Amino acid sequence: MRDSVDRFLSELQSGSEFSTNTVSAYRNDLNQFVKYLEADTPLKTWQAVEPTHLTSFVLQMRAKEYASSTIARKTAAIKSFFGYLLKSGELRSDPSDTLSSPRVAKYVPKAISENQIQLLLRAPSTEQTADALRDHAMLHVLYSSGMRVTELVSLDVGDVDLDAGTVCCTGKQNRRRHVDLSPEAVIALRLYLETARPVIVRSEDEIALFLNHRGSRLTRQGFWLILKGYAGQVGINEITPHTLRHSFATHQITRGRDLGDVQRILGHVSISTTQVYQRMVSDAESESSIETVAVDDLELVGISSQG
Q1: Which of 211, 222, 302, 306 sits most deeply, having the most CB atoms within 10 A of its CB?
Q2: Topology of domain 2-88, per CATH?
Q3: What is the pLDDT of residues 211-227, one digit of tens each?
């Protein structure tokens, strides 16, 4: 049974439809499903799987209080896998046909204010160590470019053009795009490359731009720990690795930047994905207007009561 899963994942990996992170998530989800079948049922082949087995697996996840979004992702992985078995001829019918995904609340990205961004960007500058200079450069590059964290840690030294003030990153489905950096990001990146990276790097052959303490490429998890540390220092409690990307997008739209331009910078295929940020800005402005009207009404009531 595991051989079929491995073949399915290999096919996903060789295509361009799914990102590396999605394939990795599917691998974990399907391995968990196989373990469940091995532990709770005597099944030896995929042909023996019935819809009731899938329902029981979902009910077990609900009993363990898995988030709806997690169950929905695992369900999608299972349905995709059985679709592959059907297409490849290993199955004659699909036991996941009647398996429904739980409703998931629509995700609304969260941004932090420009004042909070400035506090976060300045946090590493309290020290002048090689790590602090690296962190200062990373935060500036991430916020000024709107890159995904995976794109940031995947950067190589050759992807940066300091003279042009640009960086070339690789997005989903290996799509490459050039993004402008802010003057502050260029200065921070130049300082890192000239003084800090040579101290951190261990091998002359290392091409990764941002390095961990072992001198090799920094991981997404490593960046997440660094970000959490600085966020805690400046009193920002709710933050994720994607927060700087969301903040960049909302701040750009608030400043009046063209939505299509923001779409290109973020690397969105569909403009509808970028429009989420436009709605966030509109909602925030509406709430601000309502608060202003409420304050004005209170002031008017106060004046009339005094008169």
Answers
A1: 211
A2: DNA polymerase; domain 1 (1.10.150)
A3: 999 999 999 999 999 99
